[in-house]
Amino acid sequence: MDPAYSPQLTFNDVRHIGSGLNRPESVHMLDDGRLAVSHRGRGVSFINPDGQVATRGPEPALAGGEELIPNGIAPQSDGSFLIANIGEGGGIWKLSDNGELTPYLTEVDGVFLAAANFVMTDEKGRCFITVSTVSRPRFAAYTDKVRDGLVIIKDEHGARILADDICFSNECRLTPDGSGLMVSETFSRTITQFDLGPDGLSNRRTFATFGRGDFPDGIRFDSAGNLWVTCIVSNRLWKIAPDGQKTLVLEDCDADWVDTVETALSEGRMGREHFYEAGNSRLGNIASIDFSADGDTAYLGSLCGTSIISIPTRQGSR
Fold this sequence. Notes:
Elements: E1 15-17, E2 27-29, E3 35-39, E4 43-47, E5 53-56, E6 62-63, E7 66-67, E8 70-75, E9 81-85, E10 92-95, E11 101-105, E12 107-108, E13 111-112, E14 116-121, E15 127-131, E16 149-155, E17 158-166, E18 169-174, E19 180-185, E20 190-197, E21 200-209, E22 214-221, E23 227-233, E24 236-240, E25 246-251, H1 255-266, E26 286-291, E27 297-302, E28 308-312
Antiparallel strand pairs: 1-28, 2-3, 3-4, 4-5, 6-7, 8-9, 9-10, 10-11, 12-13, 14-15, 15-16, 16-17, 18-19, 19-20, 20-21, 22-23, 23-24, 24-25, 26-27, 27-28
């Protein structure tokens, strides 16, 4: 990493919210002030402002006969959630407001949605989905040499694949003006930008690149148009201005663990264990981000944590 980068925040600025969570990879701030987070083997957990946690979903939750492993979750206007299941059963599932789990989308254009990573809906009712890889097992795609990740849209015309050559598709977000789509490509260490039009995605280009230890995962725009990027392994949080200028906001990186993972990657033996350990980092592999209504606080989900992390987004909020 460029030694000129120095994190704006330290671990002393970190606060933990809730407890007893299981793989809270995806975090969302709801309109009623609660946080909604993914919960392995169940569905979705809700964290009240006082820190109390309630979990919704079958116990155990099975998807396609296998354990449900929610990755991305998307709250819906009727109180339900769409869940991207990165477990072996794959697919996008719907969790109703009474806790019933049903399949929503499991195949598009004849392709099984095996490693469904992310799902979101926009104000037009369109659903955007990423599938990290069609390789099975998915850790066969833990390399920059495999580009078989998908970006999918489901709208009034049905579901269809918009892109099928992404290097481990992770979160995607519409640009603030709605004219483009950003995609986090974890193993090429890039944020890729597309134009989004009636005919799909076009004008592919690189918006941001990352270096050693950084594997971009969750992305989200703030109200000022900055794109925030969480990186697993390095446990770094970046803020990228519209002009591409990067700011390191938070870092709790175990350099020895980064060496271990990078060596495994270069030798072609990287596996799931390299994402479900964080060395001595205390951030637990930060994997998603959302903001409070006033924008003064950011909430971070993680792969390995048992709570949600909050940090101030402005110096005056410390």
